[in-house]
């Protein structure tokens, strides 16, 4: 049994999960997305357990689908009845409550593809599930510390500017994948450091390569001073929504967030922390910049038995002049495109 109504698609999940009459076992509360296939409207739905579904109608002769390989999302066929009678649907079904937000983003990707071509809803659902499968099966529960969240905010603040210039600039965010620097494009790297200190520009540096420019590339350091829970500011979840709204690849972005230790299921926790950017200083990391690299140890290298070198940089000792805000804007544009190092160095 289904009960439903037709409203603008962006009202979807909020409407379905708003207080009111909840569906009982075997029933679905549905929302018409306005996306149509040859067999009818694609629906968002919530079942009696509060789990999310995307329902795409198919012909009654459609072969049964039974993809339950993922613990987080199943792809099956389901017969449902409403006032017009019985109809068969492809059911992309979330299996775990804590995956609701991620599932919502996956459903957005399905709807975007169906708006472009709605002839093969099953293939669209299957292809999208395959892209998201590994991410939806992850089980991580630890939330980020305030310090780690501060660092992630700094990276996302820069990423927002990069993808505003070009959504494909998401590719430049390589820190979550274990790269030496937070952002890198052809010939340009950017490392981001953020602090909540009001009186000092001091940052921890991890290893001897973090402030060492890659061969044939230029390296910039973006140092940010943040205020936590002041009179103004923005949360990390709100910043994430702004980045998603820029048109980036949703699955890739959410996977990178997960790699960085941020899980969408913990949004309610992260809404408690609001950051305001008090000051930003960006430096070209060149000879004379306060740092340690392997080259500082000469031809003999790091002494044998010395490992895991972390140290603190105090930018009060830096004599370099920070880049202007215009230069920073150009750096973000450069990182959003595949620009070689010589061109980047000439324009920044």
From TrEMBL:
Protein name: PD-(D/E)XK motif protein
Originating organism: Burkholderia anthina
Pfam families listed in its UniProt record: DUF4420
InterPro entries from the UniProt entry: DUF4420
Domain of life: Bacteria
């Amino acid at each position: 049994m289904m009960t439903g109504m037709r409203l603008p698609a962006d009202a979807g999940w909020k409407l379905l999960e708003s207080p009111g009459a909840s569906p009982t076992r075997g029933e679905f509360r549905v929302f018409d997305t306005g996306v149509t296939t040859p067999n009818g409207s694609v629906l968002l739905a919530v079942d009696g357990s509060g789990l999310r579904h995307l329902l795409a109608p198919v012909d009654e002769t459609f072969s049964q689908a039974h993809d339950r390989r993922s613990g987080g999302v199943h792809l099956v066929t389901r017969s449902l009845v409403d006032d017009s009678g019985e109809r068969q649907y492809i059911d992309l079904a979330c299996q775990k409550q804590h995956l609701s937000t991620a599932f919502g983003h996956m459903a957005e990707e399905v709807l975007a593809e169906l708006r472009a071509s709605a002839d093969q809803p099953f293939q669209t659902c299957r292809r999208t599930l395959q892209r998201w499968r590994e991410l939806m099966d992850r089980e991580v529960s630890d939330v980020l510390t305030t310090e780690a969240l501060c660092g992630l905010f700094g990276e996302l603040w820069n990423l927002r500017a990069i993808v505003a210039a070009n959504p494909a600039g998401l590719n430049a965010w390589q820190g979550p994948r274990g790269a030496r620097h937070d952002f890198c494009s052809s010939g340009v790297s950017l490392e981001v450091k953020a602090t909540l200190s009001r009186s000092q520009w001091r940052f921890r540096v991890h290893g001897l390569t973090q402030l060492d420019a890659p061969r044939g590339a230029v390296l910039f350091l973006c140092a940010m001073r943040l205020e936590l829970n002041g009179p103004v500011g923005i949360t990390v979840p709100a910043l994430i929504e702004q980045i998603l709204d820029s048109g980036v690849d949703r699955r890739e972005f959410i996977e990178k967030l997960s790699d960085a230790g941020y899980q969408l299921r913990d949004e309610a926790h992260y809404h408690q922390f609001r950051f305001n950017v008090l000051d930003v200083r960006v430096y070209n990391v060149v000879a004379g910049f306060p740092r340690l690299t392997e080259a500082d140890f000469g031809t003999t290298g790091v002494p044998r038995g010395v490992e895991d070198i972390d140290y603190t940089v105090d930018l009060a000792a830096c004599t370099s002049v920070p880049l202007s805000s215009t230069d920073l804007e150009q750096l973000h544009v450069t990182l959003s495109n595949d620009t070689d190092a010589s061109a980047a160095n000439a324009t920044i």
